[in-house]
Design a protein that fits this description.
Layout lengths: L1 H25 L7 H6 L6 H12 L2 H13 L7 H15 L1 H6 L7 H7 L1 H6 L1 H26 L5 H47 L23 H14 L4 H9 L3 H29 L16 H4 L3 H8 L3 H39 L5 H25 L3 H25 L6 H17 L27 H25 L5 H4 L31 H8 L9 E5 L4 E6 L3 E6 L8 E6 L2
Antiparallel strand pairs: 1-2, 2-3, 3-4
């Protein structure tokens, strides 16, 4: 009873401290502008950048998954710390510089800039579902932890946790999330490091674990190698399409610091993984029949997902278990607030402002974001409380992010003058269909496509079909984009008749008006007016070959290509919006 009361008081006090820090950090916010609210004025330095990047990956599922995998399968199958660490390294090398130089605010900005607001906004759906289900999954895990450690009904604490996270996130935005991340990452590290030695010295081992006959290193069978590769690549590249990661990267004051701290955060992630792994190794060699008050036999099938709270409760003193509970709670909060802020940021900017109300004021957008924070928190809490097999849904959404968004992001950032709206839509649909046809046993989606090495007994795909589907999606985007561009630019088919997405305005010879979607009242800030150039023309003025840009006396710019047609780009100060007129030339 004393542990129960102390545990409840400890969690509430910890939550109040987090809330106070979040609200206090929110006072650093200097205005209502998007750069300030969503990116903290791009002002983060070395220390806070490294800590908040670590907290982005070191969430509730991170430490529990490491302990679980070491308990069930061993070192070789523990891909989470390696995959996430490599993700930070590759992100620093592949995306940090171009995303920052373009002055993007969210991960959807390059899509909307290139493909238009509505097609770019379509990619918000898998990102939203992924974040909502991820939050729900972490809340559900917290419920399981509290039920094991404190033996209480956890519905109320799921609601309380979601409410606290939503409160300070709504008050201070990225400032609150980043500064609470700093406290949470220290709480996670201290809690785990304190629990580990007590669990080791107070546990009844079958024999000395270091000399144990138990194969804690693990084995990878030949027919499991495809699954192993698939899982590792998903962890590495799936996280690179997450707004939570890019929101941290874009908050940092310089590209050099962003790249350096992205790589430095790897060491922090690996360091925190050590005590979690140690706990998993100990748990698989503990003689649980002789553990006081446990009174049952532990099994890998039923207890693997709660092995961390079991060790904290039964193998450490009561006062130490409270620190372990604090570590778990901190990891949960650091994941929840990041995902809430990520989805609400994309909704307020890329959906509400860019699609529905381009003239919305900064203060109005801020209140829309706060409403989205509340809505996402409520929906996630309801799902966590009511939906079974939430983890399977989360895995499916992670797959969809990997398959539908990562290849699109790779192309739109590194192949911006080749990718087209047609390639984007086709690859999006093909990737979505192929992933669903691959099946998901946990939520009842039947297998329609039986890839090589399919195991009919376990109903499991042994072929790395997720990575294969991602590559197919990438391939379709490239092939369709190149084919469509060739067809329109060479005149094989008429752009006037067949370019229904209006992706090639320079190939139209009878249309002088743009579709409503391609008119940018509030462009996305980027290099060389990329918002206008990429979204309307699909290319930059400065990088088109054999082109001529002439400024006339009437404040207009005439753009001529191959002496076949001319484009007049109206930039007069008397005009509210830029406009383009395409005319044939003799």
């Amino acid at each position: 009873m004393a542990v129960f009361v102390a545990g409840l008081i400890g969690i509430i006090v910890f939550y109040i401290i987090i809330l106070a820090i979040g609200v206090l950090a929110g006072t650093k916010q200097k205005g209502y502008g998007e750069d300030e609210v969503l990116l903290a004025g791009r002002s983060f330095g070395y220390t806070i950048s490294a800590l908040t990047l670590m907290a982005t990956w070191v969430g509730g599922d991170y430490i529990s998954a490491i302990s679980e995998i070491f308990f069930t399968s061993g070192l070789l199958w523990c891909q989470v710390p390696i995959g996430y660490s490599l993700s930070l390294v590759i992100g620093s090398l592949l995306f940090v510089k171009p995303m920052r130089e373009a002055n993007y605010i969210t991960v959807l900005d390059p899509f909307q800039q290139k493909y238009g607001e509505r097609i770019g906004g379509l990619l918000f759906l898998p990102a939203l579902f992924g974040d909502v289900l991820w939050i729900a999954s972490i809340l559900s895990s917290l419920g399981s932890f509290l039920r094991v450690i404190l033996d209480i009904n956890t519905t109320s604490f799921i609601i309380i946790t979601a409410s606290f996270a939503a409160s300070y996130t709504a008050v201070g935005g990225i400032y609150s999330v980043a500064y609470t991340d700093c406290l949470q990452i220290f709480a996670i590290f201290i809690g785990l490091m304190l629990c580990t030695p007590f669990a080791y010295y107070d546990s009844p081992f079958k024999d000395e674990w270091i000399n144990s006959s138990t194969d804690w290193i693990g084995k990878i069978k030949l027919n499991d190698f495809g699954v192993w590769i698939d899982g590792l690549l998903l962890l590495i590249f799936g996280g690179l399409s997450w707004q939570g990661y890019f929101q941290r990267i874009l908050c940092i004051k310089s590209t050099k610091i962003a790249q350096t701290m992205g790589i430095a955060a790897v060491f922090g992630c690996l360091l925190i993984a050590v005590p979690a792994a140690f706990i998993g190794v100990m748990a698989r060699n503990v003689d649980w029949d002789n553990v006081p008050n446990f009174n049952r036999t532990i099994t890998k099938s039923n207890d693997a997902n709660i092995i961390l709270p079991l060790v904290i409760k039964y193998l450490t003193p009561a006062w130490v278990s409270l620190f372990g509970l604090g570590a778990v709670s901190a990891s949960v909060m650091s994941s929840i607030d990041s995902s809430i802020l990520a989805s609400s940021s994309m909704f307020s900017r890329n959906i509400y402002k860019m699609i529905f109300k381009p003239v919305a004021s900064d203060k109005e957008v801020l209140w829309v974001q706060r409403g989205a924070i509340v809505g996402i928190s409520i929906i996630s809490a309801i799902i966590a409380i009511t939906v079974d097999r939430i983890h399977c849904l989360t895995y499916l959404c992670s797959d969809l992010l990997y398959i539908t968004i990562f290849p699109q992001l790779l192309l739109v950032v590194h192949w911006p003058f080749g990718a087209t709206r047609y390639g984007c839509l086709v690859s999006y649909i093909v990737g979505l269909i192929l992933r669903i046809l691959g099946g998901e046993k946990g939520i009842g989606i039947p297998v329609t496509i039986y890839y090589p090495w399919y195991d009919h007994k376990t109903e499991k795909q042994l072929f790395p079909f997720k990575t294969f589907t991602m590559l197919i999606s990438l391939f379709f985007n490239v092939i369709i984009s190149r084919t469509v561009r060739w067809l329109f630019e060479t005149g094989v088919i008429s752009a006037d008749q067949w370019d229904f997405l209006y992706d090639f305005p320079e190939c139209h010879f009878t249309k002088n008006e743009q579709p409503k979607e391609t008119r940018h009242k509030e462009g996305i800030k980027g290099r060389s007016n990329k918002a206008v150039h990429d979204a309307i023309l699909g290319k930059r003025w400065s990088q088109t070959s054999d082109d001529c840009l002439i400024k006339n006396d009437d404040d207009r710019c005439s753009f001529t290509k191959h002496d076949r047609y001319s484009i007049t780009y109206q930039t007069s100060t008397t005009s509210e919006e830029p406009s383009i007129c395409i005319q044939t030339t003799s």
